[in-house]
Automatic annotation (TrEMBL):
Pfam families reported in the protein's UniProt record: Lipase_GDSL_2
Protein name: GDSL family lipase
Residues in SGNH hydrolase-type esterase domain copies: 14-96
Gene3D superfamilies found in the cross-reference section: SGNH hydrolase
InterPro entries hit by this protein: SGNH_hydro, SGNH_hydro_sf
Tree of life domain: Bacteria
Species of provenance: Kouleothrix aurantiaca
Length: 96
């Protein structure tokens, strides 16, 4: 099945510890575990394995312990400023 993403698309994964998973600081992007040990790394591995020619970028901006309010406070710098094509969001468990 063909990949339905534009070549060079960028994902900025944002959220709490479910996203963070020990990512590199200040920005979780690149090699050697920089994306952490969670779904951001898994998504990157899957995209690179199935469509390496698409040059998809995955950036992990998850922060452990964040709530929806925390995410709102950093939305501009961590999501809008990097100009993602896709901003998957996983947040809410710390709001319970």
């Amino acid at each position: 099945m063909p990949l339905l993403l534009e070549p060079g698309s960028k994902f900025v994964m944002i959220g709490d510890s479910i996203t963070d998973c020990e990512r590199a600081r200040p920005v979780g992007e690149g090699l050697f575990g920089a994306l952490g040990k969670g779904y951001a790394s898994l998504a990157d591995s899957l995209l690179q394995a199935t469509s390496p020619e698409a040059r998809i970028r995955v950036v992990n901006m998850g922060t452990s312990g964040n709530t929806v309010r925390d995410l709102r406070a950093r939305w501009q710098t961590d999501v809008l400023d990097p100009q993602p094509d896709w901003p998957p969001i996983t947040i809410g468990i710390n709001d319970l």
